[in-house]
Amino acid sequence: MSDAVTPFQAPIGTHDVLGAASAEWEGMIATFAQFAYRFGFALVITPMFEDVGVFHRGIGEESEIATKEMYVFTDRGNRTHALRPEGTAPVVRAFIQHSPTTPWKAWYVTPAFRYERPQKGRYRQHHQLGVEVLGTDDPAVDVEVIALAHRFYEAVGLTKFRLLINSMGDAVCRGAYVERLRDHLAAHADQLTDEHQLTWSKNPLRLLDCKDANCVAVTNAGPMLIDFLCADCREHLNHVTAGLSSLGIASHLDPRLVRGFDYYTRTTFEFVSDALESAQNAIGGGGRYDGLAEQLGGKPTSGIGFGSGIERLLMVREAEGVTMGSLLKRDLDLFVIDTTGLDAATLLVDELRRAGFATDRAFDQRSMKAQMKVADKSGARLALLVGPREFEAGEVTIRDLRSDNFEQTQRSVARDDVVFAVGQVLTKS
RNA sequence: GUGGGCGUAGCUCAGUUGGUUAGAGCGCUAGGUUGUGGUCCUAGAGGUCGCGGGUUCGAUCCCCGUCGCUCACCCCA
Question: What is the ipTM of this complex?
Answer without folding.
Answer: 0.86
